[in-house]
Amino acid sequence: MESQRLELLKHNNLDGFPFRCADDIELWMRWGYYLSPIMYGQNAISINEFLDNRWGNLTGSPHESTVGKSLLKERGFFTDEYWYWICVGVLLGLSLIFNFLFIAALEFLNAPADSKAMIADDDSEIVSTRKLPPSSEGSSSTSEIGCG
């Protein structure tokens, strides 16, 4: 349970949601921002939306040519079209890397406890019974266990 909380805290702090852009993150923490798959997905979706012709109205500003590019730059996203494909490629690459690491962990790491699996032969009729803890052996009613 504690590891799930730490993972959630890491994602909330490094995925860019509490920050406006990568420039708002301390220099020593930017590696987590750029390693996060959520950042690349968010950039790809934003680039796909705001570089569309619907956002192509001129702004009148000498620095930015369209409304979409000015919105992307204001929010700290990439403003060039080729970054869409870079973000998609990074997402695919990270999914392959994470899947490979997951499979390697399942293959080479030991289980935290001994396996209790029983394999019965087709010929024998083994019936496994589970013993109740000593404190509840005397009770035979299911309503006393907490089902009521």
Automatic annotation (TrEMBL):
Keyword Transmembrane carried by entry: yes
The UniProt record lists the keyword Transmembrane: yes
Key words, A-Z: Membrane, Transmembrane, Transmembrane helix
Top-level taxon in the UniProt lineage: Eukaryota
Domain Plant PDR ABC transporter associated: 55-119
Cross-referenced Pfam families: PDR_assoc
Regions of compositional bias (Low complexity) in chain numbering: 135-148
Region (Disordered): 127-148
Transmembrane region(s): 82-109
Protein name: Plant PDR ABC transporter associated domain-containing protein
Organism (species): Salix suchowensis
